[in-house]
Amino acid sequence: MTVPPFPTHVQIQTTTACGAACSICPHPVESPRWSNGLMTDGTFDRIVNQLCGRPIEYLSPYLMADSMSDRKIFDRIEALRRALPDTHFEVSTTGMYLTPKIAEQILASPISELRISSHGTTAEEYAKTMPGVKFDTAMANALAFIERWKAQRPFKLCIVCLWGLWSPEREAQIEAYWRDLGVEISKWHVNSRADQVDLTIFGDGSEDTTVYARGKDDPPYLCRFHRDTQWLHILSDGRVTLCCMDYKQEVILGNVLDSSIEEIWNSEQFADIRAKIRGDRPTAAEFLCNRCEWHVSRSVYEREQGNVRSATSQEHQLLPSASQM
C-alpha cells in the first residue's frame, strides 16, 4: 500500500485513564506501568497546530483509554473541530460516563460519531468483560442517552460489542436487543491484542475464538487495518507509538515535542518498521506485529476483502476501528 505524505487517520491519547477494567483489554495490567498520564495543554496545542488544515479523514481523541475520563475533552474536541472542520470525529465511551451532564455535553459537541462499548446486556456479561463498569448504572445511562439522541440524531451512534465471546445464539440475542431500540451495532471480532490478553477465560481454549486466521501465506504482509500506512497514534506525552495494540509501548517512533508529525511519519525509523511489517526485513519472533492477529499476508487480506464485498449481509464485517478500547 502506498504511504501518503501525511497520516490520514489520527488517534490522540489525551488521557490514559479508563475505569472499565475490561478483561479483554491489556489496560488494567499495563497502564499502572506507564509514565504518562493526562496530556498537557502545551502538547495538545502543538499537535492541533500541526494537524490544522491537513487532509485528515478520521480522528479519534482517545487511545487505550476512555475519552470521557478527560475533564478537558469537550474543549479539546472544539479546538480540534476548528482546526479540522471536515474531518470525521469519532469518540468512544461506556455507559458509566453517560451521566445527564456529560450526555448533554456530548449531544452539543461537534463530533461525527459516538460509540458506546457494551460487551453484553446482562450483569453477568458485564462482570466477565467489563468488571469496572457497574451494570445497572451503565445500562440506565446508555438507555436514557439513546432516547435523548433519538430526539436529535446530531451524529452517528452505535453500540460496540465484541463478537466471539458468547455463543452464536446469545450474540443474536444481543444484536436484536440493540436493534429493537433503534441503534446500530458494530461487531468487533475479539482478539488477543497481540498475545496480551488470555481469551481462554471465555472458553476451554480448544479453538480460536476469533475469526482472524493466525496462519499466513507468503509475504508481502500488511496490517489488516493499515495502522502503519494510514494511522498515527500519539501518546499523552507526545510520543508516537506504532498502533493501538502497543500497550507495552514497545515501538516508539518519535515524539511530537522533538520533531514534527510530518518528520516522524516520513522518518527512516518509520520506514524501517513498515519494511519489517511487509516482511522485507527480518524481525524477532516477539516483534509486536508478529504476535498480532491483524498482521497477515496480502493474499489473505485480499481474500477477506473479497468475501466481505460479496457477502449479502454485514455479519462478521471487518471494522477499521480506532477504538479497540
Written account of the structure:
The chain has 325 residues and is an alpha/beta fold. 31% of the residues lie in helices and 15% in strands. The protein is built from ten helices and eleven strands. It has helices at 27-30, 41-51, 73-83, 100-108, 123-129, 135-152, 168-180, 261-265, 268-278, 298-310, and strands spanning 9-12, 58-60, 88-94, 113-117, 156-163, 184-189, 221-223, 231-234, 239-241, 252-255, 295-297. The chain has a nine-stranded mixed β-sheet. Helix 2 (41-51) runs parallel beside helix 3 (73-83). The longest helix is centred in the middle third of the chain and has 18 residues, at 135-152. The radius of gyration is 19 Å and the shape is globular.
Summarize the structure.
This protein has 325 residues and is α/β, with parallel strands linked by helices.
Average pLDDT = 91
> Could you state the order of secondary-structure elements as H and E?
EHHEHEHEHHEHEEEEEHHEH
Number of strands: 11
The whole-angstrom Rg is 19 Å
Q: How would you classify the helix and strand content by structural class?
A: alpha/beta
User: For the report, how would you describe the main beta sheet?
Assistant: 9 strands, mixed
Categorize the overall geometry. globular
Helical coverage, percent range: 25-40%
Strand content: 15-25%
Summed up, the helix count is 10
Indicate the multimeric state. single chain
Strand arrangement, major sheet: 6-5-4-3-2-1-8-9-10
Poorly predicted ranges: 204-211, 311-325
Fill in the keyword field for this structure.
alpha/beta; 9-stranded mixed β-sheet; 11 strands; 31% helix
